[in-house]
## 1
Amino acid sequence: MDDRAKRIRTNRPGGKADTVKVDLTAVVVALSDNEPCVLTIGQTDTLPSGPLALEHRSLQSGLRAWVEEQTGHPLGYIEQLYTFADRDRAGTELEQRVISISYLALTRKEHAAAPSRSCWQSWYDYFPWEDHRAGTPPMVSDVLRPRLIEWADGADDGATRLERRRRAAIAFGFDERPWNEDLALKRYELLYEAALVEEAMRGSVLPPPVRGKSMVADHRRILATGIARLRSKIKYRPVVFELMPPAFTLLQLQRTVEALAGRLIHKSNFRRLIEQHELVEETGDTATETGGRPAKLYRFRHAVLEEGEVAGAKLPLARG
Amino acid sequence: MDDRAKRIRTNRPGGKADTVKVDLTAVVVALSDNEPCVLTIGQTDTLPSGPLALEHRSLQSGLRAWVEEQTGHPLGYIEQLYTFADRDRAGTELEQRVISISYLALTRKEHAAAPSRSCWQSWYDYFPWEDHRAGTPPMVSDVLRPRLIEWADGADDGATRLERRRRAAIAFGFDERPWNEDLALKRYELLYEAALVEEAMRGSVLPPPVRGKSMVADHRRILATGIARLRSKIKYRPVVFELMPPAFTLLQLQRTVEALAGRLIHKSNFRRLIEQHELVEETGDTATETGGRPAKLYRFRHAVLEEGEVAGAKLPLARG
DNA sequence: TGCGCTTATATTCTCATTGAGTATAATCGG
DNA sequence: CCGATTATACTCAATGAGAATATAAGCGCA
């Protein structure tokens, strides 16, 4: 049966089995002082990445090897993000197709031995419109909204104009709509489509119309994919703990989630939820850091990882 | 900046940029008479698939081309599933690595013009333990449980034995644990690890210990990935409607979701939820099919797709 | 016609979860 | 010992989920 099927799948006209190069790209996330950071190579706004080679046993091991070689940082938790294969990806080289398999990795900065050529960058440097912890950033209504409306009104027919306005309103929470932090990727893609980010106007002499650092090739899009994935995942799986030190206070945990989500959380409800699901257990020690009453230290209960898909561990993200 | 980064990413020792072949594989799902079906090629237990070729503009278009050529079935909604690159995937051919990019597609059987070489197979033929609509299938406690316990007890040290037992109990809902339909992939991987499915014992002369048709290469694993993705996705995004005819009754809709989830739904709660979220609107007609009071016909409100990520559209799947 | 069968639709009643606000406890620096 | 600061505990209303029951509208057939 195996053989018959193989024949069927390969002996077909038009099936020139062209070869491609595979690029492995990593979005490595860690927290630094309540800022969500991504690992880049030096100051180049480039994510760690490299070609898949024969010596790599698997995609994951290839990725780990590249990240470790380029940044000196060993990886723990990783998860596949997406496989991109835009033909116009690397610009002009059309003779050889390159597909890019991206991964999300969660670690802690301390795990890095030497700073070496690596560099931690707050991801809000690349997406300043994504941080709503201190309220909606002024640029959303001052810059993005008018530019997006301008873009929408530039459409040929009225249906498209309405459609564009609606998409922008949903993605960015215009017109009394709620802000949805999970839509980070859609927002970036919308700005790209509206040619408001630098990547969409490569080759142009005009300055990028919207503030926010750009990245090499499609790396900012990959980063946006990672952010969106992480933001939605922390709501139903206890992955935040990959970013936490062995012992932490509940407030530290809350600040971490807030940093990732880019919005504030209701304190008591957050604590109630964490305790309800028995995600943590007390270490017995207390933290005496800042002024005020000392906080109990907790550690993650690794057992919960084996207790199934932690149903309904929804994090109570506060509303507007 | 683009150029500098490109140099950094490619001029590195050990970076032999080996080329690979890319295989595109589709899990095409449709409903037939309240059975969730997957599109296969003839009777070969093979998913539609083919190599990515230069003439394909993108991964998606390549996939569409292959599926249409092999089955005559045009695709509507598709979504990327996962990229596999097991070195031992295709068996023995180690000189050329093959990675497999898989997609999930949702359609309706009627869309196919001619039956041609395609064939719709109930996915429960491949995963008989996944259908809990008529209660937990006997094979779960009669076959799977003893075999998995046997496998667990075959481990060297006690810790691994406990760990295996726990994993099995979580995945299959042993020991009073609830059944979680979303874990379809974990269940298959567990059975594979325990060498209880045919794919895990290729080359052996022994018969497969667990009932359920196998598929070519790793296609059953890809199918399991698709099932798991679809089962979890119907809970927060209105993708079911891709599988529905233009007009349908609420009961038909419920039966469809039940078929996908492999478990029953509480009727009134289901209707309440659908109406609450305004996912559908009445067509004005009624269905006079079976005996009993005629049911109102509804159509999907496509507007909701543009109303953001349909927050909390959780489907009320009934408990034990 | 009307009775029973079947399916559709509406209503009600808990109980758990969620969002939000308020109160009390413990430490520190003066 | 006071007030600033942070931690932890408790309360309350609104909402949503699960489950059960009631009523409506067709059909077939005596």
Note: Residues 1-16, 89-93 of chain A have pLDDT under 50 and may be disordered.
## 2
Amino acid sequence: MPTDTTASARARASDELREVALEHFATVGFGASSLQQIADHAGYSKSSVLYHFASKEALLEAAIGPSIDALEDLLGDLIEFRRSPGERGAFIDRFVDFLLANRLAVHTFVNQGQSLRGIPVIERANVAINRLAEAVCADEATAAEQVRFGVALGGAAFILATGNLYRGDAPELPEDEVRTALVAVLSELLLPVPAGRPDRAY
Amino acid sequence: MPTDTTASARARASDELREVALEHFATVGFGASSLQQIADHAGYSKSSVLYHFASKEALLEAAIGPSIDALEDLLGDLIEFRRSPGERGAFIDRFVDFLLANRLAVHTFVNQGQSLRGIPVIERANVAINRLAEAVCADEATAAEQVRFGVALGGAAFILATGNLYRGDAPELPEDEVRTALVAVLSELLLPVPAGRPDRAY
DNA sequence: CGGTAGCTTGACCGATCGGTCAGGGACTGC
DNA sequence: GCAGTCCCTGACCGATCGGTCAAGCTACCG
């Protein structure tokens, strides 16, 4: 490792490349990202990228795999306490924390999960999302419930990656405010009707 | 195919190509779509695509431009009746109709509007979405309101393009049920708190 | 000091990218 | 019959794609 100061140069380069790659995958999409662009943006050569990661798909796996692991852990816990509205609220808290800690990865596999079928890590993500949907929606899943879940998932993934909401002058929303707002919105969308939902136009 | 039966062959081929291209742009993304794939999928040659549309960007413009026109018309009307909750509800009705009639185009410019900056038609879409945000959120826009709008927009765009919600066995939700569900969800998200919103966990 | 392992790189590969261009076949008007 | 227009296409262009390979460099170990 040339001119290594702290940890191994391998780990440092890998981390930098993973991070830059994730940013590209989330913003311009996996298919539209080139190894050359990622390498340039990270300050390495394309060959270096392919030294640390066997292929473009392997780089994707390294970039979003850990986030999917975390999601699977979350789902494992979810199986235990089911159904009770209070515990669902607690799950939403944890879920929002997960979203905030994995913004780019979530946006990547939520919005590209359909088109990247066949890539193992994406398949894993799709299975996890499917399990999440089954756990959140009732098993008999009315159309309304599926729409609520889809809007919650897609909406959260969207807002997490779209920093300032198309407003060029935006002041970059503070994370804790986003967190509380997101918990509130997802609670409204996913919690079984808490007595006072304004039932207009159903 | 030069054997023209009904309308002009130009118009028919253009329509087919626009449709196929829009499907590709919405699903795999503009940058990851190739003219060759679009041509193959439509049953034409790549040269034919570039005969009908001067460039890949021109094809994008043709594919989503009309939808953006419709959105701009919708916004023009929105300026007139502002603020009153009842009229906002009526606007949501019309907006959902617009979403359902322009599923793929909406998904395309909502989810790729950030990464495709510089393309004129995308710039136009971003301006329209920005205007929509300013009209829906209050001008002073709390973080919670911006999150609500973002979740509503991103969530709607997501669910419109993601046909069966990751569930391989899904029975393809009927459009009218999706419509009513979407109106209900967007009303909850965007209508100023209608007296009885369950204010949990704020 | 020589050897070796780890990290980086440029040169190179075949395939594909968006785009240009010169035609070819089918139809119309003369 | 012939010119012209319209629609479509294959051949071709330079650039870039993901990926391979061998060489070079630094650091450490004997």
Note: The mean pLDDT of chain B is 87.
## 3
Amino acid sequence: MPREMDRRAARTRKALHQALLALMLRKGYEALSVQDIIDEADIGRSTFYAHYTGKEDLLRSGFQMLREELKEAQSAASAGAEASHDDPLGFSAAMFEHAARYADHYRTMIGGRGGTVTENEIRLILSEMVRQELPPTLHGDAVPRDFVVQFIVGAFLTTLNWWFERKPKLSPSQVDAIFRRLALEGLSQLIGDERRQVDRPDASRDTA
Amino acid sequence: MPREMDRRAARTRKALHQALLALMLRKGYEALSVQDIIDEADIGRSTFYAHYTGKEDLLRSGFQMLREELKEAQSAASAGAEASHDDPLGFSAAMFEHAARYADHYRTMIGGRGGTVTENEIRLILSEMVRQELPPTLHGDAVPRDFVVQFIVGAFLTTLNWWFERKPKLSPSQVDAIFRRLALEGLSQLIGDERRQVDRPDASRDTA
DNA sequence: ATGATAATGGACAGCTTGTTCGGATTTTCG
DNA sequence: CGAAAATCCGAACAAGCTGTCCATTATCAT
């Protein structure tokens, strides 16, 4: 791999990435043909195949950057609050921040537009992040560990999708609050179920 | 729509549905061509287009049956336990039973194999079911109603996918128990977070 | 500037799609 | 049973996409 890339190559790749992003927002990934991409980017056919093996390759390479940056955000977040195992979803705020900054990219990945490949990819990334944050032991063995991971990742994706589609005006921290409320405390509190009326921990733990 | 269908037409459609199911289990939906389907079903090209406008049409028509049966299962479940608003996820057990019976169908719809169309379709079906079961008012206005719906649907799908991919031996009721544990009570109880150690309601409510 | 290197655009064969025929076959109904 | 009606079939089509090849052109290092 060439550490420094020819300027032409760099420009070509950038153009392709931009074209892909724009088209995915418009038509979704699956409906896209290589033809569409090179038309949008105004790039020759063979040029495309000189750089990537197909649209999936192009897509994946686009993830690389996001993936690394997200990992950094996680590190930063769980380093700040060393209480990683105390608040195992502590990095959720950082994640929503990151999503807000790259809203367009996330939008293409999540919900209908993304398609199978994209969905899988982001699931893997998030899964690993969650797995790291999760404490080594869970109370009781009733709920398998890998299920918990999947559950959280699913909740992330659901939240992101709802955010972008329904309430794009909400700030990352607002979304994070809603997410945590539901994922951490569960549905019982929200739903009828008066009996359990939960003597809630009075929510005055610390700052908010 | 012909109330009674010509036997030949019925056979053709059945063959196409079976072919689609088999191929989706093998290769997934997106990767499928009409060519593959008619080869597998041993049906002429023009015959296919005489019945359906394309593979998506065929797919959707396959849902019809499942959709109706699932609705019935829901009705039955929430009729038995009239406490619909008391235990708003009371039909979850019925849903997992249904999924177990039509495991092959569900398997094609969920997780990688399904593709975008399928995923959307099942999301819609489940969303409506959940929306009906949800009580008219939620405690506090912190969490928007439609978000709760999406959250539950997402949890369903996550659970189904995990079940099929990782622990296909589990019984519907076992899966349901795990699901309810996480969705209703939330993560706090499972995860470190010793402080909140929840004075749990002693779980001796009534029958189980 | 000049040769070496790499990106580029256009053209190619192979495949899938969706449509349109006429003819063969099966079903339905009298 | 027998005829009319409906359905299936196979072939052939234009159009579109895919992935590869090669000659041309632009950039890089010296």
Note: The first helix of chain B runs from residue 7 to 27.
## 4
Amino acid sequence: MDEKLRAPLREQLVNCSLPAALEAMGERWSFMILRAAFNGLHHFEEFQSELGIARNILANRLGRLVEHGILTRDAMVKDRRKIHYQLTEKGVALLPTMLALRQWGERWETGFRASPVLVDARDRRPIGPIEVRSWDGRVLTKRDLLWALPEDVDDSGEHGRGDDADDDTATSAVRAAE
Amino acid sequence: MDEKLRAPLREQLVNCSLPAALEAMGERWSFMILRAAFNGLHHFEEFQSELGIARNILANRLGRLVEHGILTRDAMVKDRRKIHYQLTEKGVALLPTMLALRQWGERWETGFRASPVLVDARDRRPIGPIEVRSWDGRVLTKRDLLWALPEDVDDSGEHGRGDDADDDTATSAVRAAE
DNA sequence: CGTTTTCAGTTGCAACTAGCAACCTAGTTT
DNA sequence: AAACTAGGTTGCTAGTTGCAACTGAAAACG
């Protein structure tokens, strides 16, 4: 690996969003609960009997997911006992992560496609593999990729697609290459 | 929700590759170690000082990742004390998962882009967001997605890439969560 | 109305896991 | 040989997981 990158890399490994993400989702049952939520479950007892998770752990995990803004928690009007848990936008945003993990498990652990299958509603074909792509959609493999410091990044492609535009960080966006 | 899907869904939620994936990667430090490995670290002491993880936990996690075939472990020829940990193909295959999680953290937790940034070596632009796509590459949002049972899946698009399958077509599926 | 059932949790307690600091062992350097 | 390194292991404490049994409030039943 590039020595120029090596030393700063050291300092910056800490400064990563991964720990923050794992703070919210790093516990054992979190992804399982999330998956159940994606599959349309909304109530405590549903999660409990579905996942076979201990009740206290489930209560704790649900509470944490609510705290982190991944689920909302509301008593239902029709039946005040029933709590309705629902994915927020932030929670839904975890779908690619969950699918990537699941696909990896299918390919490298279980060896077969899990059910139910997530399909494109339009043609009922299974979704494609979650992949790393360039800003303009080319599939990238490990050989196409490089770790770069913010100064060496070309940020000019950031304003073409619909991902939010308040990227004020990182930017002495020097044209490093080309 | 559709009752026709509901009952089978119950039985099948267990039969998912997610638990298998979490068995390998679900522990607290696993993704952090993986990330360090992606950043080019190879040795015990590097991981240790980089991540600030306890030595016994690190030893245990590295051992587990090796057991699961995510890392290889080899004594170096030049210095028999030094152990060289290296990502296997299976380990590298976790890159999309790790990036999806990281990107989610950037967008929803820390709010800024972490460093170092993964860029396309060709143009030094940051990689695009990890997204769910159809078999032919269209970006799919939550509204485009359905959970379907294997019988209801159209598998005819499966022969462009290396995933195995055979099933026929029918009809009954359910919109992805609500 | 009182009783029973259901839902979503708590509480108490045992077993297991994470984390720190100190120690160990084989291989390497001086 | 003595000292040093890399990569662990061990002992101990603090926290987490998990089961089972209990609670409390809202709904359903008779």
Note: Helices of chain A lie at 3-12, 17-25, 30-38, 44-51, 55-67, 89-92, 95-110.
